[in-house]
Design brief:
The protein is an alpha+beta fold and 117 residues long. 20% of the residues lie in helices and 35% in strands. The protein has a single domain, classed as OB fold (Dihydrolipoamide Acetyltransferase, E2P), CATH 2.40.50.
Length: 117
């Protein structure tokens, strides 16, 4: 079924404004803390886990999963890699997108790089 030309510009605006901001990258730092949230926890619907980096732990955390991240999540193997970087004190740089859920803005992990220190 062909799309009406009068609906096309409005449809494009909805798509453009529904998208999260472009990805940014954190400074490279060691991981200060990791939190993994289980399905039984009340906050699981909002996010499934978070990482705090040593360089900005007082100001930011980097999340995955749930409503705060628009469903963007990490695989189990990615979470395991973050734990290994934390355990071995390797540095990481996190690629993230800012997502807004109601009045809350979250930095949601889209990728990360682990560097041997």
């Amino acid at each position: 079924m062909p799309v009406s030309r009068s609906l096309l510009p409005a449809s494009l605006l909805v798509i453009l404004f529904a998208q999260p901001a472009n990805a940014d990258t954190s400074a490279t730092s060691t991981i200060s803390q990791i939190k993994v949230i289980d399905v039984a926890d009340d906050t699981y619907q909002f996010f499934h886990g978070a990482v705090w980096l040593e360089h900005d732990k007082a100001d930011h955390n980097y999340r995955w999963g749930g409503k705060h991240c628009g469903g963007v999540t990490l695989s189990e193997s990615s979470i395991n890699l973050l734990f290994a970087a934390f355990r071995d004190k390797h540095s990481v740089a996190i690629d993230y997108r800012a997502y807004k859920y109601k009045t809350h803005v979250s930095r949601c992990i889209t990728a990360f790089t682990v560097t041997r220190t």
